[in-house]
Automatic annotation (TrEMBL):
The keyword Flavoprotein applies. The keyword Flavoprotein applies. Pfam families: Acyl-CoA_dh_1, Acyl-CoA_dh_M. This is Acyl-CoA dehydrogenase. Residues 73-190 form the Acyl-CoA oxidase/dehydrogenase middle domain.
Length: 362
């Protein structure tokens, strides 16, 4: 499957040849169409090219060659560090006097190499099949894992997953997005050359926030596509199914429900495209802003999928129709790439920070 995707030319060079406004529209259209087809597969395709995108952004020819033609994954969470990866403001967002959560995947870094121990979480997209990883890891550069504020030092690196000391768990068995092969990866004294790093101590959080922002924008396009697929399936079914002596679509309440679904699809698309334009074109971006769009889009997608399943009635709960799959895929998205309640709380934190700087004060 990945070989067929590669033939489409969906790599970082595709969008760079266009004006930024055209590139945003194309990226949005492609992401939505992929999500319309299968959200899990769309997320997998996005994650597969993530290491190559970062290598290209870094301008590192060795890493570009290392990633080209390979299935990639994105390692950022681990069993002890999930939503805590979003903590940037230790003063407002962490208990006073306590160091941050360094998690269960750690590295020591010197001038020559990065030595990695621990495991990433079972939720790593493509973790079960990836050949190369873009990894964000707590790091000790010789003076401990924490800075003066208690925040974790980190290193971001591209890691070939055939190095000695790397092993994997079994693929994750889950509620939805089953076309997305997620799974754990274990590291036992894995040695990576320092030249494979894309962000060291001082650049780590800026690089990490850029990566998370990219993931959020991709999720928004994909789940706009899922919402559209659920709407279209329901619309067709309402023109085929008869109850009360007439087609479902001829009932006034059904028309209202269909209209409300269409409104939500358009809302999701507008938010998804605006967040993508912001992330790609603004000189000053923020991962909480693109994550906020992910919250809006995935929650609207779930509402559309849920309403579509209701319109199918009992048939919607069977596997005879694909609407039950869309519902499961959408439900998983509310936790994927940041649980929606946690993200929304962090958006509130951003508002608090901006207010302290004078925003919205008369």
């Amino acid at each position: 499957m990945f070989q067929e995707v590669a033939k489409l030319g969906l790599d970082p060079q595709l969008f760079s040849q266009f004006d930024s406004h055209v590139a945003v529209r194309l990226e949005s259209l492609i992401g939505e169409e992929l999500g319309w087809g299968d959200a899990g597969l769309a997320v997998s395709i996005g994650a597969a090219g993530f290491p190559l995108q970062m290598a290209s952004a870094a301008g590192n020819r060795e890493l570009i060659d290392l990633c080209a033609g390979k299935i990639g994954c994105w390692i950022i969470t681990n069993p002890e560090k999930g939503s805590d990866i979003m903590v940037y403001d230790m003063k407002r967002d962490w208990p006073s006097g306590r160091s941050a959560n360094k998690g269960s995947l750690c590295a020591t870094v010197d001038r020559h190499e990065i030595v990695i121990n621990g495991q990433c979480s079972a939720w790593v997209s493509n973790g079960a099949v990836a050949q190369v990883a873009l990894a964000y890891i707590a790091a000790d550069y010789g003076d401990g894992f924490f800075d003066a504020e208690g925040r974790t030092h980190g290193v971001a690196a591209i890691i070939p997953l055939d190095l000695p000391g790397i092993s994997r768990g079994k693929p994750l068995d889950k509620i939805g997005q089953r076309a997305l092969p997620q799974g754990e990866i274990y590291f036992d004294n894995v040695r990576v050359p320092i030249r494979f790093a894309v962000a060291l101590q001082d650049e780590y959080y800026g690089n990490q926030s850029s990566a998370w922002s990219y993931a959020g924008t991709h999720m928004s396009q994909v789940f706009t596509g899922l919402a559209r697929a659920a709407f279209e399936m329901a619309l067709q079914y309402c023109h085929e199914r008869k109850q009360g002596g007439q087609l479902l679509i001829d009932h006034q309440l059904t028309r209202y429900r269909v209209g409300d679904m269409l409104r939500r699809v358009e809302l999701a698309r507008s938010v998804a495209r605006r967040s993508l334009a912001y992330a790609r074109q603004s000189p000053f971006t923020h991962p909480y802003a693109t994550a906020s769009a992910k919250v809006t889009v995935t929650e609207e997608a779930l509402k559309v999928a849920s309403e579509a399943l209701e319109l199918f009635g009992g048939a919607g709960t069977s596997r005879e129709y694909p609407i039950e799959k869309l519902f499961r895929d959408a439900r998983a998205a509310l936790i994927e790439d940041g649980e929606n309640y946690i993200i929304t709380a962090r958006v509130g934190l951003l508002a608090q920070q901006l207010y302290a700087e004078g925003w919205a004060q008369s």
